[in-house]
Amino acid sequence: MKSRGPGARQIYEALRTQILAGTYQTGSALPSSRALASELGVARATVTAAYEQLSAEGFISSRQGARAEVVAVIDRQERSAPRQPMPAPGQLSRYGERLAQRPAAALPVDQPALDFRYGDLAASDFPAMMWRRAILGALAQRPERLSYGDPAGSHRLRLALQAYLWRARTLRCEAEQIIIVSGSQQGLDLCARLLLDPGDSVVVEDPCYPMARDIFAAAGGEVLPVAADQDGLDAARLAGVKARLAYVTPSHQFPLGSILSIARRHRLLAWAQAADAYLIEDDYDSEYRYDINPVPPLYGLGAGQNVIYLGTVSKTLSPTMRLGYLVITPGLVPVFTRAKQIMDRHSPALEQDALATLLESGAYERHIRRIRRRMAERRGTLLDALKLNSATK
Ligand SMILES: Cc1ncc(COP(=O)(O)O)c(C=O)c1O
Description:
By secondary structure, the protein is of the alpha/beta class. It has helices at 8-21, 33-40, 44-56, 76-80, 94-101, 128-140, 155-169, 183-195, 210-218, 262-275, 298-301, 333-344, 349-361, 363-391, and strands at residues 60-61, 69-70, 178-181, 201-206, 222-229, 232-233, 245-248, 278-282, 307-312, 324-327. It folds into two domains: 8-74, Arc Repressor Mutant, subunit A; 149-361, Aspartate Aminotransferase, domain 2, CATH 3.40.640. The chain is 43% helix and 11% strand. It has an eight-stranded mixed sheet, with helices on both faces. A two-stranded antiparallel ribbon has the order 1-2. Strand 7, helix 10 and strand 8 (278-282) form a beta-alpha-beta unit. The longest helix has 29 residues, at 363-391.
């Protein structure tokens, strides 16, 4: 018949809690295993197993034939010390201090009646069947050995992106210049770590994507906002500005939506070359153009010199995917690859393979065309409603 008393795990946990709470003082003897077993109505072996575990973890000492004794575990002072909710001054690094001073904005709790929150995608827009097939295909191709992959990303995905960037963005580069990252955010973090020292200036657009500004500020950069308007960043204001980096959204200024004019593009590139600065071109959603064709990237105009191109699938597939890519000059590839390896070895391999399949088969672009039509309808509905509303006022 099965014993109805506690098991060895419960006895162990109860005694452990009592020892830690000081109920059993250091040096005091525990009941003999025979006595405790009879008191609890369990087999002696059950108590012995609990004692053996406590002894192995250093809570008690048990010698053959002698009663088990409680060993000094922690002193009373340490036990009663209150938990410190915040790190003491000096415990955080300077980077940690800067982050602690800039806590993330709290997410809204209430579901608003009309949700204009930026960044989310409708779950129904995600091509679930297509993605499932691609993931299953990638799983079927897994080799027997599960090894770490190339920190720069799967070569297959980099080749597929090279072809895609040429087809869809007229951007010419070698597959070896592409580094797969865990979203634009990690791409920006790598740029900040590798191209910026604390105290160095970084130009950002005013207004600017706050997550980018936060990265530069956390890295200790001096963030210099430069006004943007209906033609994008006002590059004329950069005359005389010394900075290591400039972060720009030329195809679709965030959040104004403007396109950086060709005259300003030339000015910006000339400034970067003269200042020996890198321009980070964040091309986060250029697929969504409704009235004109997607705007060619700054990267092409500058022939890749001084420009780091940053792309993501957060707007085309899902922000939950955490997949993005950098296109950098060949000279930067080794250090970016090494930094990526140190950071997280590489981005998830299965997802990289699945994305490569979608790009190779053309399914990714078919999906973009479908979503773009859907977005255009939604945009049209919103614009009509706004016009209607202003006409009735
Ligand atoms: C300007 C800008 N860049 C990049 C992203 C995407 O970032 P991630 O690829 O890290 O999801 C967003 C998303 O909202 C954005 O607004």
